[in-house]
Structures are given as structure tokens and as C-alpha cells.
UniProtKB/TrEMBL annotation:
It holds the Pfam family F420H2_quin_red. This is Nitroreductase family deazaflavin-dependent oxidoreductase. GO terms for molecular function: coenzyme F420 binding; oxidoreductase activity. Belongs to the F420H(2)-dependent quinone reductase family. It catalyses: oxidized coenzyme F420-(gamma-L-Glu)(n) + a quinol + H(+) = reduced coenzyme F420-(gamma-L-Glu)(n) + a quinone. NCBIfam families: hi_GC_TIGR00026 (TIGR00026). One of its GO terms (cellular component) is plasma membrane. SUPFAM superfamilies: FMN-binding split barrel.
Length: 164
């Protein structure tokens, strides 16, 4: 059974006014909720829409930067989309990953290191059309509004090695 809030959130989330109004508020609230609950709670908890906290290293500052993002799973990786709510500017976290693909994610109370790779070509078309747009149809609206190529990243777990 689908959550009744899901359809409403998806419909409202596709609207330009929503992106404009909430892009400055929602990330701060989600970042706070994620930090105090270890990534177990976000503004979308209970809706079926998945979010994670991504921590990158600032390409200019060298400081750790944490941002809440929608995500989907694909072949052991977490997919995130550099849509920036449909803005013309590429999101800073995306530029940070391009400069340094090593990052950390927190999902559902667990966190760990990941390595980002840009999803391109046939794989990009596949995940865009069959996974990402299914989980968040608003990405299509964001891409149209942004008027730029939207980067998709696969965040792949970094396997721990043991010295021996």
C-alpha cells in the first residue's frame, strides 16, 4: 500500500514555486534531523521517499560539507542526482565530488565511506528512465528548468581492507 502523502509530496515537489520556496529551508532542516538522529529521520520519513546525508570535502575550503539528498539504489550503489532543485547552477556538492570522489553517506542510521562515479551513456539512460524518474518524477521538471546536463552519481561503498 502506498503512503497517501507520497502522491501529494511528489506532485507539490514538481512545482517551481516549491523548489524556490523550500530549497533554502528543507536542506537545513533535513541536515539537522539527520545529524541528531544519525541519519534515521528526515522531513520525508514515513513517505517512502528515500533520503541520505552525503558528506563531501569542499573543493575550495577543504572543509567537510553535508547535504541531504534523495537517492535510489542500483546494483549495490546509491544514486544521487545533481539537479539542484532545477536551478541553472550546478550544486556545490556535485562539484566537490568531481574534484574528490571520496565521501561519506549516512542512511537509516548507518554511515560509511563511498566513492562517487559519474553515471554515463547507456547506464545513465537506464537509471534515469527506469529508476530515478520512477522514484522522483520531479527530476524531469528539474532538468527542464535547469537547462543543463544533470549529473548522476553512483555512490559505491568503499571496501575496507585489513592489514595482515
Amino acid at each position: 500500500m502506498t503512503n497517501p502523502w507520497n502522491a501529494l509530496i511528489v506532485r507539490v515537489g514538481r512545482q517551481k514555486w516549491f523548489a524556490t520556496a523550500f530549497k533554502g529551508v528543507a536542506p537545513h532542516v533535513d541536515r539537522f534531523l539527520g545529524r541528531v538522529t544519525g541519519g534515521r529521520v528526515s522531513m520525508l520519513t514515513g513517505t517512502g521517499i528515500k533520503t541520505l546525508l552525503l558528506t563531501t570535502t569542499g573543493r575550495k575550503s577543504g572543509q567537510q560539507r553535508t547535504v541531504p539528498l534523495l537517492y535510489s539504489r542500483h546494483e549495490g550503489a546509491l544514486l544521487v542526482v545533481g539537479s539542484n532543485w532545477g536551478q541553472e547552477q550546478v550544486p556545490a556538492w556535485s562539484l566537490n565530488l568531481l574534484a574528490n570522489p571520496e565521501a561519506t553517506v549516512a542512511v537509516g542510521g548507518a554511515s560509511g565511506p563511498v566513492r562517487a562515479r559519474v553515471v554515463e551513456g547507456e547506464e545513465r539512460e537506464l537509471v534515469w528512465n527506469t529508476i530515478l524518474l520512477k522514484n522522483w518524477p520531479g527530476f524531469k521538471d528539474y532538468a527542464e528548468r535547469a537547462g543543463r546536463h544533470i549529473t548522476i552519481f553512483a555512490l559505491e561503498p568503499v571496501k575496507k581492507t585489513t592489514a595482515g
